[in-house]
Amino acid sequence: MSTTHLAAILPSHGAPLTIQTRPTPTPGPNELLIEVTSIALNPIDIHMRDHGFMIASYPAVIGSDLAGTVLTPGPLAGTRVAAFAPTFLKRGSPDHGAFQQKVLVPAATVVPLPPHISFNEAALLPMSVQTAWAGWRCMGIPCDAGFKAGPRQGMLVWGGAGSVGSAAVQTAALLGFKVYATASAKHHAYLSSLGAKRVFDYRDEDVVERIVTAVREDQVALYLGYDAVGALGPCQEVLKRLNGDGTRLVTAVPLRDDSPRVEGVDTVFVAAPAGEAERMEFSRFVFGEWLKEKLASGAYRPSPGVRVVEGGLEGLNRGLDELRGGVSGVKLVVEV
After folding, report:
1. Whole-angstrom Cα distance, residue 313 to residue 299?
2. Residue 328 pLDDT class (50, 70, 90 cuts)
3. Distance of CA 44 to the CA centre of its chain
């Protein structure tokens, strides 16, 4: 095996990524070395490249979502996997960012892939599924593969067409919730195919009224909401009108001091466990138990669609610039 590989290095704060050769690391305890085939891009990658978010020092390697093949000797050697690289937890550590040919990842954040899922599709999975499950954890939903919501329990998902939103729709539906999602009209049929009971156009002036009316017509108890896009106001209004109080809203967008608050709607930022041991156990459940079974059975499918950014590692800067400009209903993927 070669002792070096190519990586897209972040040389300094706000600089473009540059392709360089770097030494291939050796896995530590509970780590795996992955040969990367596909990388999916996320908004956090933009913040790390452009603003130095969660970067301790330079040069750094960023990137979280990847799919590839396990190189570490052992029972998983040669296995096709999707993996969650811990770039922001490791604060840009060059060994732990996905934007390179070979990367170290925690063994707990790896899920084996069935033959019907391609590397490009698999790269969509790690951050979106873990972020969805982190939301359910914040709501008090147990990390239990046998959990099922009651027959008339509902879930609001605002912004269902993106990566995290579509994962929230799928996971909530598989947990047994009646899902009421929002997206632009062109994505409604797709979200219905992922398990949404009803889908609404967030741009309609009376969208809140439409959702409240539908939930009441369906005689569903909807106390929980997942905001995937930072639309706290309408989410809080739906939950408040339906229940008065005693509801919980989780948001994938960080809360600020001026974020709206509504009495009776407990609003919290999505977060995985803070402690290392608890976080690894959470990841082991999400990837090694829940997602592994759902992929193998075909119950969960990677979402949304894939758009490949040409150029391999050299295409990463262009892909991040495109993502910063906004994409809808797809996730950008780079083939290494």
Report:
1. 32
2. confident
3. 11
List the one residue out of 174, 296, 298, 157 whose CA is nearest residue 227.
157
**Maximum C-alpha span of the chain:** 63
Amino acid symbol at 329: G
Per-residue burial over 26-59, b = 16 or more CB atoms within 10 Å of its CB, e = otherwise? ebeeebbbbbbbbbbbbbbbbbbbbebebbeeeb
Contact 109, 126 (CB under 8 A): yes
For the chain, the straight-line distance linking the first and the last C-alpha, in angstroms and rounded, comes to: 18
Q: How far is CA 32 from CA 75, 108, 226, 281, 334, in A?
A: 11, 9, 32, 16, 21
Do 67 and 113 touch, CB atoms closer than 8 A? yes
Segment 56-95, tens digit of pLDDT = 999 999 999 999 999 999 999 999 999 999 999 999 999 9
Instruction: Give the residue from 274, 287, 69, 288 showing the smallest Cα distance to 167.
Output: 287
111-138 tens-digit pLDDT = 999 999 999 999 999 999 999 999 999 9
> Position 277: which residue type?
A
d(CA 247, CA 285): 26
| pLDDT tens track for 33-64 | 999 999 999 999 999 999 999 999 999 999 99
Element spanning 82, H or E: strand 80-84
CB 56 within 8 A of CB 89: no
> Is the separation of the CB atoms in 336 and 312 below 8 Å?
yes
Residue 102 belongs to what H/E stretch?
strand 102-106
Cβ neighbours for 109, distance < 8 A, ≥ 6 positions apart: 83, 84, 85, 86, 126, 130, 283, 287
Which residues lie below 8 Å from residue 272, measured CB to CB, with a gap of 6+? 130, 134, 137, 279, 282, 283
Residue whose entry in the numeric block shows the structure tokens 């052992």: 74
Alpha-carbon distance of 59 to 48, in angstroms, equals 12
Which amino acid would we find at residue 147?
A: F
